[in-house]
Amino acid sequence: LPQNMLWIVSAVQIRLLATPPLYATAKVRTWAGPSRAVTFPREYELVDAAGAPLVQARSNWAVINADARRPVPARAICDFPEGFAEQTAFTGRIPHPKEFSLDPAGEEGITLLPGFSQLDANGHVNNTKYANFALDAADLQPGEQVTEFLIRYHRELTPGHSVKLITRREEKTVLVMGFTPENESVFSCEMRLA
């Protein structure tokens, strides 16, 4: 990448198809899809020793200018060859999680202040930690299992800034949204349960 550019993830969708036994051998495959205006799609698959799929996932990545914190057009990064993998377990683009109408200031929620161990090399909260926040806020009960996990990242969270997590349940779906103290959306997440 040119200097002063960072890779960020903007969305992730995961389907959990089967749970492998403890200590089972599994294989991970990943491949890139054709770039779009500002995003670079990538798919992943986790298969067991016999080749049966356990997990299917996809993500959208973007390159941003580190100072402006704005996306850089894909073609400005480099010319990409044709012939990306056509294989896909998904149709269409990564959907947006369901959102619920609310006034974040007037809602009860869990407020977290991320610490040093949750930061990445870019100086903001690592994208995997947002998923941890959402899973913790979901307050899953014994026997509940997530079968699909969808998260969109709206705004980076930096050291010293808190996030308020607000959760809603609709039958077999858990929705979690994270907000800054200024009521700006940080992320939205949708989990489907078995």
Overview of the molecule:
The chain is mostly beta strands and 194 residues long. 8% of the residues lie in helices and 40% in strands. It contains 2 helices and 10 strands; from the N terminus they run βββββαβαββββ. The chain has helices at residues 74-77, 127-138; strands at residues 5-16, 26-32, 40-48, 53-65, 70-71, 110-112, 146-153, 163-170, 173-179, 185-193. Strands 1, 2, 3, 4, 5, 6, 7, 8, 9 and 10 form a 10-stranded antiparallel sheet that branches. Strand 2 and strand 3 form a beta hairpin. It is globular, with a radius of gyration of 18 Å. The mean pLDDT is 90.
> Helicity level, as a percent range?
under 10%
Average pLDDT:
90
Largest sheet: 10 strands, antiparallel
Counted by DSSP, the helix tally is: 2
Global shape: globular
Descriptive keywords:
single chain; 194 residues; mainly beta; ten-stranded antiparallel sheet; 2 helices; 10 strands; globular
Please outline the helices and strands:
Blueprint: E1 5-16, E2 26-32, E3 40-48, E4 53-65, E5 70-71, H1 74-77, E6 110-112, H2 127-138, E7 146-153, E8 163-170, E9 173-179, E10 185-193
Antiparallel strand pairs: 1-4, 1-7, 2-3, 3-4, 4-5, 6-8, 7-10, 8-9, 9-10
Q: How would you summarize what this structure contains?
A:
The protein is mainly beta and 194 residues long.
